[in-house]
């Protein structure tokens, strides 16, 4: 199967599971409509796809990991809803559709995000395909990645750094928290559920950290070189928002070189972990060269 | 020990544990300051006190349940931070201090609430005094009580019912979700960790549901009869906000009678569960007659 077909198949699988969860765990009404709206607004489902691909590489069944993959996407979706709010990034559009607070209202969007965050822990705690040890480990890791030492702290740092010139070191620290930790969870959860060895887990951690940076550098590059229609937001918006970016700190060529270095690190880690002949190698290349 | 001394002692215990958790699970900076501000703004710590008292009544050690009690208060604190936001109840003051978004800003307040919600699951998942079965059960129950079939749905319904006249049935359904489920968790978690029998759990559930309604009716009564200085918000604010209340639907006398009926139900359930000679009986009376 081509990667493009694989991505479509897995997205559909995840979308279906997410819709089932939202229907099962909410009651009809405005809150459910608002949650479902953002869940159905789609997106690449990158994090759950990475989790599924890693789990498969280490031999875990899709059935076993689909609930955790969905919980992970719930956390990502809640973070987008809250980040789009007027008090945060103040975005009116997301993935070609009005953002949640534009379609509903701010209060509803805040509550929809809160509900998705609570739900992410609940579906793992109640996942019949996992044992208690796995549930506890995954909830601990997911809340750590998304909380006050992870994603939320990264978003805070990102907002505080607007309109200031930050160093490459600070920029990487922000991205590691804001987007890196959740991407890392997708890889580590998949490897954990596939009972990867200690050595393999350590290599996959290195791969996951490189992947987070590849993802972010490509995001910044696209903001300079991308087509607004394709990336789904105005190109050049980072500059307009006075955000520090890799191309700004390293030049466009320097940013591309840096990204290539991380691609090599990620691929080598895959080899050392013994899973180089899997979708993961293709996914690293895909993330490094994606046009949106 | 008098109840008043008991309440002070337990509040101090909980406050200390909450501060430790926030310091351990966050990094210095604006997000930590904002979380700590709302945690230190105090409050009655009613939910964790009820959990501690119930656990004690059924023989669980304080050490075993203090982490869960703190997680519960984190959920309550996050909900207050988000409820106070301009898009929600738009409150400038809480417990005699500026609300989180007034002291910091809206973005920080949203993130502080998000972080506390994630942290509530994390501290249970990582609580060394619990086994995996207990952790999973408590996370499942707490997220259920606080999520899209619990507190968040209650807040949504409450906002939708503003400026409309609702029936007693709808009013009780809103309160059951908005405040009742978290109060119920405090009782049920304590009884569960004390290894209460199935029969006792069933009685305690009835007690907890009555307690939630006692709490809400007294809240509504205080809004009519209370002293603004003592209750910490303007008396009569429900009427100003066009909220349906018990005194409005039943008259003041009728509301007091209704509350008394629930007090009797709660006390009888305590007796049937075999824990009538405990702090819980005093706490029911206290909640029914509190002046703030």
General description of the model:
The structure is a homodimer of 292-residue chains. Chain A has 292 residues and is mainly alpha-helical. Chain A has a single domain, classed as Orthogonal Bundle (Farnesyl Diphosphate Synthase), CATH 1.10.600. Helix content of chain A is 75%, strand content 1%. Chain A has 14 helices and 2 strands, in the order ααααββαααααααααα. Chain A has a two-stranded antiparallel ribbon. The mean pLDDT of chain A is 95. Chains A, B: One of its GO terms (biological process) is terpenoid biosynthetic process.
Number of domains of chain A: 1
**CATH class categorisation of chain A:** Mainly Alpha
Mean pLDDT of chain A: 95
CATH superfamily of chain A: Farnesyl Diphosphate Synthase
EC number (chains A, B): 2.5.1.10
Protein name (chains A, B): Farnesyl diphosphate synthase
Catalytic activity (chains A, B): isopentenyl diphosphate + (2E)-geranyl diphosphate = (2E,6E)-farnesyl diphosphate + diphosphate
InterPro entries (chains A, B): Isoprenoid_synthase_dom_sf, Polyprenyl_synt, Polyprenyl_synt_CS, Prenyl_diphosphate_synthase
Q: Topology of this protein?
A:
The structure is a homodimer.
Chain A: H1 3-25, H2 30-40, H3 46-57, H4 62-83, E1 93-94, E2 97-98, H5 100-103, H6 106-125, H7 132-146, H8 151-161, H9 168-193, H10 198-225, H11 228-231, H12 237-240, H13 246-273, H14 279-289
Antiparallel strand pairs in A: 1-2
List its salient traits.
two-stranded antiparallel ribbon, 292 residues, Farnesyl Diphosphate Synthase, homodimer, mainly alpha, globular
